[in-house]
Amino acid sequence: METMKHSGRLFVPSLPTLWPHMLLSRPKPGALPPFSSPNVRYFYFARNAIWLTVKMLGLDSGEVLMPAYHHGVEVEALVDAGATPRFYRVGSRWDVDLDDVARRIGPKTRALYLTHYAGFPGPVAEMRKLADQHGLILIEDCALSLLSSDGTVPLGTTGDVGIFCLYKTLPVPNGGALVVNGPRQYSLPEPPAPPSVSTFSHTVSALLQNLELRGGLAGRALRSAVRALGHGTVKAASIERVATGTQHFDRKHVDLGMSPLTKRIALAQDLESIVEQRRRNYFFLLGRLRDISAPLFNQLPPGACPLFYPLVVQDKAEVLARLRVQGIDAIDFWKRFHPACDASAFPEVAQLRRSIVEIPCHQDLTPEVMADVAQAVREAVKSDHRSKKRAG
User: Fold this and answer.
1) Rounded to the nearest 5°, which phi and psi values hold at 312?
2) Backbone phi, then psi, for 112, in 5-degree steps?
3) For residue 233, what is the enclosing H or E element?
């Protein structure tokens, strides 16, 4: 493939950016989990909450049934805490094979682990029933599904615990949460705040992304200059920046809490409006892309807050490169299996890993920007199809 350079016309970040006024906004009542939950603890990473869940519920002496379609970092956190992962089948449309889950429950099974993918609710009621029948813990992983509901039931409230990631959906520098449901109460430690320099670094980065989003070429140039200066300063001062969005679990960060600034920004968000805007943008893409790439889902379930639009493609690398040329920061979604999972046993998951690209549809993107995104995606997918025909 030819070398491609950024066209400079668009800037569409993969995650929402931090608008300056959000630093001064007043907190609003949290109407959705985890903010509305009475028994919640906040962490720097959602993976920290997974590690603590294993220890808190005594799962380190047994097996946890997890989906074969996983990121990997959640599996690493669970293994580091002492539990043994076993994997169940997920189909070509992110559908959990409940019969396969039931077949794999054995004498060592201590918990069922359900991931809600990209805001789309998994079969949580059915998993709850299975867990109750066998006396198992149900863990709801809502790291990709903050603010989503299954109809009127908020995700993360049916399982024994709900685990959330804040910075994938909200413009915050860090943040994960653990919610404990049910009558039993646990004495959860309040983790210490992270290094302020790390929080400051992430906050400035999010503000600069917002500047580029609003400022076009001038904003891009200023952001590049400030980033270069900032990277040099951080390196010279030997400052440890605890990166978010990393691929692996690191035990030395397990005790890090969420920064007070993150909580302040998160509580000042208009959560209902964010859900509405993400749904609007998702429907926009669905209507304009379904004819060139069969949608993974033909509809958006009531209550779902989509993290991104899952685009099915033939050549991920080709499509991603063409979108980035147009200034669209699409993401290669969950490319690899964790080594503990036998990839050959789950061919449908392997195909998902080869074919799904994240197209941004977050709350920063206006209908005008979404029109440009849809057109760029159409061109990238058509080019992908032409390349395949020539190769064939």
Assistant:
1) -95, 120
2) -110, 140
3) helix 196-237
pLDDT confidence band for 389 (50 / 70 / 90)? low
CB 17 within 8 A of CB 210: yes
Q: Do residues 173 and 202 touch, judged by C-beta distance below 8 A?
A: yes
Q: d(Cα 167, Cα 245) in Å, to the nearest integer?
A: 9
53 in helix, strand or coil?
A: helix
- Distance of alpha carbon 373 from alpha carbon 276, whole angstroms: 19
Residue 240's φ and ψ, nearest 5 degrees, are -85, 115
Closest CA to 211 of 364, 103, 81: 364
pTM of the shown model: 0.90
Residue 115: count of CB within 10 angstroms of its CB: 23
Are 171 and 19 in contact by the 8 Å Cβ rule? The answer is: yes
Q: Which is nearest to 258 in space by CA: 46, 72, 52?
A: 46
pLDDT per residue over 56-104, tens digit each? Answer: 999 998 999 999 999 999 999 999 999 999 999 999 999 999 999 999 9
Taking alpha carbons only, the member of 57, 112, 104, 116 closest to residue 81 is 57
248-272: per-residue pLDDT in tens?
888 888 888 899 999 999 999 999 9
Residue with tokens 């200059």: 225
